[in-house]
Design a protein that fits this description.
Elements lengths: L1 E6 L5 H9 L4 E7 L3 H11 L2 E3 L2 H7 L4 E4 L6 H10 L3 E4 L7 H13 L4 E3 L7 H12 L5 E11 L12 H4 L3 H17 L3 E10 L6 E10 L4 E7 L1 E6 L2 E5 L2 E5 L4 E5 L6 E4 L5 H13 L9 H18 L1
Parallel strand pairs: 1-2, 1-4, 2-3, 4-5, 5-6, 7-10
Antiparallel strand pairs: 7-11, 7-12, 8-9, 9-10, 12-13, 13-14, 14-15
């Protein structure tokens, strides 16, 4: 049995709990949050013991894995504290708020021989897994480029306010949602990020961006454009991969459409969440004594390095 501690009981915890409920050999035994309402909702659902201090939880509880879903500026501190207690870490994305922050997490986890798994989930998402299968099959030729657009109300009243303060979040729509786009590019290309250029627009009255236009080049030559707009509630999130002999389109609802040179599209409906498969894989690896993550600290660092570079170039 893998005993799990949950640090952070916000909106994302619902998906984490639902995923863990499907894993027979995993159990949430303790949870921590400063919000009494959030903490009560989680502990009543899971039967976990409640804490308001994550350091107390990590000190008192005998847990094998901690899932950290805190404001981004706390990721480094919480990860390192857990690592020094010998506890393996599943860290929600984005990995951290700076390159130095991420490098320190990697080093501390390595020194303490604990797993650091960053929660970029697209390689476990059935829709994107299907797109990757199509790419790797070679039937549509070689991948050339990528395009993704995300349009949403990023500053909606329902979003916790810490997301909109750079010192707490590390940035705006790019570090939070653009990280997903970069994750897809890494997954589809099988390559690291070589360079990024573009522009961010800072929302008036805030110090984080509401929109981004970026051009990304991977080390293997695959390129892509990322367009993020966070000003209206007109939600859309299409993703397209262009290949030498075809095209693949993935919708936010999990519809995968693809065509060859004839331009005639076939479509397949897929599931849209990778959380269950990702956490199941984490648990299976730990039970087997394998601390090698599929999504490593170096993977997460590559994404934060690119986002940091974009911010610096946009000043």
């Amino acid at each position: 049995m893998i005993n799990i501690g949950l640090i952070g009981c916000g909106k994302i915890s619902a998906g984490q709990i639902a995923a863990i409920d499907t894993i027979e050999n995993a159990k949430i035994v303790a949870a921590c949050d400063l919000s009494e309402e959030n903490l009560k909702a989680v502990t009543e659902k899971t039967g976990a013991r409640a804490y308001t201090d994550y350091k107390e939880l990590l000190t008192k509880e005998k847990i094998d894995l901690v899932i950290i879903s805190l404001p981004h500026f706390l990721h480094g501190e919480a990860t390192c504290f857990a690592a020094e207690k010998g506890i393996d870490v599943f860290l929600e994305k984005p990995m951290g708020i700076s390159v130095a922050d991420c490098k320190n997490m990697i080093e501390v986890c390595r020194e303490n021989n604990v797993m650091l798994w960053v929660g970029h989930a697209h390689c476990f998402n059935p829709a994107y897994m299907r797109a990757k299968e199509l790419i790797d099959s070679g039937k549509l030729g070689s991948p050339i480029s990528f395009s993704e657009t995300r349009n949403m109300d990023y500053f909606a009243a329902s979003r916790p306010r810490w997301f909109l303060k750079k010192e707490l979040s590390g940035g705006g729509i790019m570090i939070n949602l653009g990280a997903h786009c970069l994750d897809k590019m890494k997954f589809f290309s099988g390559s690291e990020i070589a360079d990024i250029h573009g522009q961010v627009h800072i929302r008036e009255g805030y110090d984080v961006e509401d929109s981004v236009q970026a051009f990304v080049r991977m080390k293997n030559g695959f390129v892509g454009t990322i367009t993020l707009v966070g000003n209206t509630a007109a939600y859309s999130n299409p993703t397209t991969v262009y290949l030498t002999k075809g095209e693949i389109r993935i919708s936010a609802g999990g519809m995968v459409e693809y065509c060859g040179c004839d331009g005639v599209f076939k479509s397949e409906q897929c599931e849209t969440s990778g959380m269950k498969l990702q956490l199941k894989t984490v648990v299976e690896k730990l039970e087997a004594g394998d601390k090698t993550p599929v999504i490593s600290g170096d993977y997460g660092l590559d994404i934060i390095r690119a986002i940091t570079k974009l911010y610096e170039k946009s000043i």
